Amino acid sequence: xxxxxxxxxxxxxxxxxxxxxxxxxxxxxxxxxxxxxxxxxxxxxxxxxxxxxxxxxxxxxxxxxxxxxxxxxxxxxxxxxxxxxxxxxxxxxxxxxxxxxxxxxxxxxxxxxxxxxxxxxxxxxxxxxxxxxxxxxxxxxxxxxxxxxxxxxxxxxxxxxxxxxxxxxxxxxxxxxxxxxxxxxxxxxxxxxxxxxxxxxxxxxxxxxxxxxxxxxxxxxxxxxxxxxxxxxxxxxxxxxxxxxxxxxxxxxxxxxxxxxxxxxxxxxxxxxxxxxxxxxxxxxxxxxxxxxxxxxxxxxxxxxxxxxxxxxxxxxxxxxx
Length: 322
Prior knowledge:
This protein has about 325 residues and is α/β, with parallel strands linked by helices. It has helices at about 15-25, 40, 60, 80-85, 100-115, 120-125, 155-165, 180, 190-200, 220-225, 240-250, 290-305, and strands at about 1-5, 30-35, 50, 70, 90-95, 145-150, 170, 185-190, 200-205, 230, 255-260, 275-280. Helix 10 links the parallel strand 9 (about 200-205) and strand 10. The longest helix has 20 residues, at about 290-305. It is elongated. One of its GO terms (cellular component) is cytosol. One of its GO terms (molecular function) is NAD binding.
């Protein structure tokens, strides 16, 4: 029997136990810890580990000698020391695409909110200002250009929604060809600068990597149209937040839809004080269906590695050997 530790995972494991029964898996023992005991102490005998926000460092991994796999119920994996895990022959997996529908809808919803000033008018009306001419001018969406930065599952699911609004879609994705993007009805931007200069809405869909940290900073914001909106449902640190605050204050861009900030631990941001923003609390991925999809994908990776001895489908450290 191999132990799998679910550490600081809010849900009960009834769903996972049901899946194991349906799949005929009998060699995994699922255990849950609420975080009161440090991870390294709880996971000494664990062959599998599921965490949400816990930082899994090289030092912690050194105290988990039996560990074979870390399975994440998320897309991002910045909380895991991948190099250390790979060195210790520990597979790290994620759950790609589990919330693509939700984030796509949320992102387009933010665009519509900003384009029609829905949240803005809600605020002004509650202040007893019944005036439809307050704030920035409104423009018809038909023919406007949405710039998608990268083109994974989420932006791909946005395209039909945007096309239904008769909007043009421009994509900056260095690994995607013109022909590939044309199949989706999208135009390829050869450079990020081209996209920033042409788009009426710039929507970010990059993972957080060293090369994408502060991908959008002062220089990039200055390249955008003064009538443009920035939407970030990716990761907070993809945007230089002080630079964005300044751009919004000075009118360098018109507004922003923000689902992620740099300091989510303390939930602190100067963006909260600005009228020309729509902000949600990292909620774009949430639905009952997406939660269950993520849990199922995470458990399937554990079964592949531990019960079947196979290479997991959603491996994020492909250089690992075992």
